[in-house]
Design goal:
Elements (H helix, E strand, L loop, with lengths): L13 H4 L8 E5 L3 E2 L8 E2 L13 E2 L8 E2 H16 L11 H12 L2 H4 L5 E2 L1 E7 L5 H5 L6 E6 L13 E6 L16 E2 L9 E2 L3 E5 L8 H7 L2 H5 L12 H10 L5 E3 L22 E7 L16 H4 L3 H8 L11 E6 L9 E4 L1
The structure holds zinc ion (2 copies).
């Protein structure tokens, strides 16, 4: 199985057409998740964390409504989905192992409504990212940290609709000698889509430019002026009536899960993101995306999965929504970090 992912070069060098955006270039690391069987020593989405055995596991003490699904049952299905994705031609991959059968049979025997205890809810691993795979983390996180771990509460909170509450943990991997092997798990989850399919990653750095709504009014008008684009090689003339869409789709912000870069906007207009502790404007840390592509942005599809992205069924989904995570009705959850003091509380936005 091909394990690298290569984003094709942008169809146009935007800085040749609009030199004004050159100083705004930022590096983002696309994570390119694909279903797999990650270990605690791997960067992953929905994989096991390198967590010290003697450190308390994060719990959410928010006000919860009960979830509708058993976490254990959903995790069994997620493992099966990862297996099928890794072995698409082997019909046995879809069969439950004896261990998985035993879990599902045990869950059928209990009266779930009466077994779910109240109290703080164990959070669920969402992302584990090593700086050796994603060097950008060294500039975003606290000095000395080389491992970012993101967990979330798998239940919704009455005041925070449609977006799971996250915990962000930075650490030095070398400090973890004794690994926690059986982390606690919540009893129930709000949606199956809050439980990622275990995925390994193929991090790749790309260059991004701001969403047009973050540019000056003057520059926004120029982006919409077809005569500026016409002279550039590689511009698709079908965009002549709306050249700013060409910029939006192919030249500015990459789709999918990523670290750093520029935020995508669309659910709301750009809004200030001051640090709640010190007021400094915060930087994008992690984008948790429902989909690996947005609308017409086919040019961002890596070479290695272009064939699969034009197939159907599960193979298509493994490319477009490999984690099966869904935020709201198909949005992104953006986590921001304080550049002045990375240990300040993070904030999050849905876009
Ligand atoms: Zn919670
Ligand atoms: Zn701050």
């Amino acid at each position: 199985m091909n394990t690298t992912r290569t984003t094709p070069p942008r169809p146009v060098d935007v800085t040749a057409v609009f030199p004004e955006v050159a100083p705004l270039a930022r590096t983002a690391t696309r994570l390119h998740p694909r279903p797999g069987a990650p270990a605690p020593q791997d960067s992953s989405i929905g994989g096991p964390l390198l967590w010290p055995a003697d450190e308390p596991w994060p719990h959410c003490d928010g006000l919860h409504t009960d979830g509708s699904y058993s976490l254990e049952a959903v995790q069994v299905e997620r493992r099966v989905q990862a297996r099928v994705a890794m072995n698409p031609d082997d019909p046995r991959a879809a069969q439950y192992t004896p261990e998985e059968k035993a879990i599902l049979e045990r869950l059928q025997r209990i009266d779930i409504d009466h077994e779910w205890p109240e109290g703080p809810v164990a959070m669920l691993p969402v992302a584990q990212l090593y700086a050796r795979d994603i060097p950008l983390l060294r500039t975003l996180g606290p000095s000395g940290a080389d491992l970012l771990q993101v967990l979330w509460c798998p239940l919704d909170h009455p005041e925070e609709f449609y977006m799971p509450r996250t915990a962000v943990v930075w650490r030095s991997a070398a400090d973890v000698t004794d690994i926690l092997t059986s982390p606690p798990g919540a009893h129930s989850v709000e949606f199956e889509e809050y439980v990622p399919v275990p995925c390994v990653l193929a991090p790749e750095e790309v260059t991004e430019y701001p969403n047009s709504s973050e540019l000056s009014k003057e520059l926004q008008e120029q982006l919409g002026d077809w005569s500026r684009w016409e002279a550039a090689a590689g511009v698709d003339s079908s965009y002549a009536p709306y050249p700013d869409s060409f910029y939006w789709s192919h030249l500015s912000v990459a789709p999918g899960w990523k670290v750093g870069g520029w935020p995508q906007w669309g659910y709301t207009d750009p809004a200030p993101r001051p640090c709640p502790a010190c007021g400094t404007a915060m930087d994008p840390l992690l984008t948790i995306a429902t989909f690996e592509r947005d609308g017409e942005d086919d040019s961002w599809i890596p070479y290695e999965v272009q064939a699969a992205s034009s197939s159907t069924g599960d193979r298509y989904r493994d490319v477009v929504q490999p984690t099966r995570v869904q935020i709201g009705s198909g949005y992104k959850q953006q986590l921001y970090i304080c550049p002045a003091a990375p240990e300040h509380p993070h904030i999050e936005l849905m876009q």
